[in-house]
Amino acid sequence: MKISGNTILITGGGSGIGRELAQRFHDLGNTVIVAGRTTATLEETAQGRARMHVLTVDASDAGSIAAFAKEAIARFPQINVLINNAGIMKREDLTHGGDTAIAEETLVTNVLGPIRLTNAFIGHLAAQADAAIINTTSGLAFVPLASTPSYSASKAALHSWTVSLRTQLAGKVEVIELAPPGVRTELTPGQSEVEAYMPLDDYAAEVMDLFQQVPTPSEILVQNVLPLRNAERDGRFDQMVAALAGH
Questions:
Q1: In what residue span(s) does the Ketoreductase domain sit (predicted)?
Q2: Would you say the pTM of this structure is higher than 0.70?
């Protein structure tokens, strides 16, 4: 992936990993459009950065995505990089059954959202030079966190879908997977205070170093996520599942 001179669209750009990536890509010489549901937080991300712009979209709503894609392409026809980063993570108790609201919300946002966004932009991207799609999955795509089953399943699904997308778009659009470990953000309440998780600034710095490798890795994996990514290969899958569950 070309590291500068792009026009990058990133969802979930109002906080956490999305904000850090948006600002760091901007500061490397890219035009960046940050997108999400809340204008105020997006404007905080963009504050003081002349080549950063704000658009709103609800990644859980098909109609919102269609209207957003039309507006984004009309206003910024040079878009050549799409970063599907928006997502939600909620805990679930599966022991009593019943309500599937969290599962439905999670799968619509974390799986259908990136699929719909990719579908909306792929025709445009395929016609651009140096085009790339980056999908944010998770280390939990490879070893689930039992307390967030739908989130873990959604990221496993997006990982698999990304592999297929990469294969189908080979030679046309570069497809990259970004799989974070636990990072100190507010993805879930209190997560930014968890000492065992990676500081956001450290994570973003290591990620940007990986993006600047030539060629860009097809999977952006910081050192902290490798035990999850390689658990099955290394024969440690069951052990890692139990460790994440606190057993």
A1: 6-182
A2: yes
C-alpha distance from residue 15 to each of 1, 9, 57, 60 (Å): 24, 15, 15, 17
How do the pLDDT tens digits run along the chain, 247 residues long? Answer: 999 999 999 999 999 999 999 999 999 999 999 999 999 999 999 999 999 999 999 999 999 999 999 999 999 999 999 999 999 999 999 998 878 999 999 999 999 999 999 999 999 999 999 999 999 999 999 999 999 999 999 999 999 999 999 999 999 999 999 999 999 987 777 777 778 889 999 999 999 999 999 999 999 999 999 999 999 999 999 999 999 999 8
d(CA 31, CA 47): 14
- Cβ atoms of 174 and 212 closer than 8 Å: no
> Is-catalytic flag, 151?
yes
Residues 6+ apart with CB under 8 A from 35: 9, 10, 11, 12, 13, 42, 54, 55, 56, 57, 68, 72, 86
User: Annotated catalytic residue: which of 25, 68, 142, 151?
Assistant: 151
